Amino acid sequence: MATKRFAVRTTANFEANLDAVEAFLTAAEVSGAFDALLDDLANTVVPNLERFPRMGRSFLNRATNSLEARDAAGRLQARLGAGELREYLAGDDLILYALIDRSVYLLSIKHHRQLSFDLGAHWRPVGD
Asked: What is the pLDDT of the chain when averaged over all its residues?
């Protein structure tokens, strides 16, 4: 008996994030990395999410250490209704997606190096 697959759809924000990842990798002069990312999305990530849409970690189940974070998570869950917000680590990239009914909506993607802080710039004295 074949398992019914979920539909995987991209959002405008996901597409914009892909453009930002491409620009980031181009600036970092990482030859072929963006093409490898697109291949991974098409050949691994999307097929995995079609078959196993809950494979990513639940985004809203993470610990909230402040009242503001708890309130924001509650508002987000209310907007999702019965849907789920999940994150999937695929190689060097973190993908945020929503699972609603039998569809997976790719919401955001970031390369792990885009998630880091430029601590050197934070410590420069004002006026430098």
From this structure: 86
Q: How far apart are CA 38 and CA 18, in angstroms?
A: 9
Q: In this structure, which amino acid lies at residue 90?
A: A
DSSP 45: I
CB 102 within 8 Å of CB 3: no
Q: Which residues contact 93 (CB under 8 A, 6 or more apart)?
A: 21, 37, 40, 109, 110, 111, 112
CA distances 115 to 24, 53, 80, 93, 118, Å, are 12, 24, 25, 10, 10
Q: CA 1 to CA 73: how far, in whole Å?
A: 38
Vertex 22 angle, CA 115 and 10, to 5°: 85
C-alpha–C-alpha distance, residues 115 and 32, integer Å: 20
Average pLDDT score over residue span 65-90: 87
**Residues 30-57: pLDDT tens digits?**
889 999 999 999 999 999 999 999 999 9
- The pLDDT, as a whole number, for residue 17 is 92
